[in-house]
Predict the 3D structure of the following.
Amino acid sequence: MKANLYGVIGYPIHHSMSPSMHNTAFRALGLNHHYHAFEVNPNRLGEAIKGMKALGIAGFNVTIPHKVEVMKHIDEIDEEARMIGAVNTVVRHEDRFIGYNTDGQGYLRALLNLVSSPLQQYDVLVIGAGGAARAIVTSLANHGVASLTIANRTVEKAQALAYDVSTLQPCHTMTLTEAEAALGSFHIVINTTSVGMHPHTDAVPINLAHMREGTILSDLIYNPLKTTWLQEGEQRGAVIDNGLSMFVGQGALAFEKWTGQQPNQERMSQHVIEQLGGR
Ligand code: ATR
């Protein structure tokens, strides 16, 4: 069987959990492939990608700070990745590198597992308007939800993102204070900011006093696995979802694009939890 080499490029990269997650998934399916982390200095990105092509690398993930810049160095970019404005997965087709963004779709797939009715019946609030929010908002707008609202500390950034997806779905914007007051009107609330991430684990992105019981509260952070915000939400009767959904979801979708096979997401998730020391 052919043994392909896959990888992830980032700077720095030593904390990445992608290599062990993918290598575990390859082994579980009896595939002989290997996934390696490559630390690529931003000023050598073009060279690195040429080298990857020459070496026959079959596909790779792209992480911070290369997700936007990488678009200049590959041969083709999928439409949703272009709308998001970032690429996190590159697939080799013969001698061409094609860029995708599996963050939003990976997240969406995990969200679809959590809901009991079609997403078109849910009013969704996204907190944040950075790179992660762009991926999620674009995928949600592409799929269609009952209503879509973005709240961000810098409201102009929320407005810019809302404008960018407006051809797919109308999108409202709010300040964080307005979102706190209106929280009872949303069925799904997603935190895409880094507020609450290790080591600032006491911080919360918005106050949950007005949240309705049964709201789906989703936090993209997975370190810690259960943020203070999710803990508070759980106490108030929310259905909670942590950042493993998106991390594992984006990885699983990349894996499928590369191998044509579905990895065991439960196993991937369990592996990441073990790597995190069960936190
Ligand atoms: P990522 O790619 O992880 O989304 P990013 O593009 O840097 O990271 O975006 C970070 C997001 O978190 C932004 O929405 C940012 O708000 P601003 O646009 O106002 O900067 C938000 N964010 C980061 N720190 C924050 C804080 N302390 N309070 C509120 N929002 C914060």
In short: The longest strand covers residues 5-10. The CA atoms of residues 9 and 38 lie 5 Å apart. The chain has ten helices and twelve strands.
